[in-house]
Structures are given as structure tokens and as C-alpha cells.
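Sequence in, structure out.
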Amino acid sequence: MSALRLAHVLIEEKLAACVQVLAHMHSVYRWENKIEQAEESMLIAKTDTLHFEALRKRVCGLHPYATPEVIAHPIVYADPKYLEWLFLQLA
């Protein structure tokens, strides 16, 4: 599944309020004891703690990698109007 299609699924299913797709990144990593490199895309999905687990499961179910990177970054501070918008999108 393409990164853009995955982004659309997360928005359509209200698992994220916004998904940014950063395409054409070059990753170098160790996998099964070998150094690999690949061109990848990164998705930054804006969601809340109530939707994170469902989002994680959906990404893992659709992603072609056996172990996709799905991590959460806490919001330390955000503009109150932005948070209001975010929560409205997930309702």
C-alpha cells in the first residue's frame, strides 16, 4: 500500500486528524544482521491517546513491512485552538 493511500485510510476511518507524508527519504538500518538501505516515506499522523492503539493496529495490518515503525510522541504544549480542531476531527 502506498504512503498516500495509507494516509487516506487513516483520515477516512477517523484514526488521525491529519497525516503528513514525507516522501523519498533514504533509510539505513540493520535488519536480520545485515545493513540495509531503502527509499522510504514517513507518515506523521496526528491523533490522540484514545485512537493510538487502533491506528497502530491499522498501520501494522496494512503496511508491507513485518515491523513498521509506529511510535508516539507526546504533545508537551499545543495551541488550544489546534487541539480543539484535532479532537473535533476524531469525534
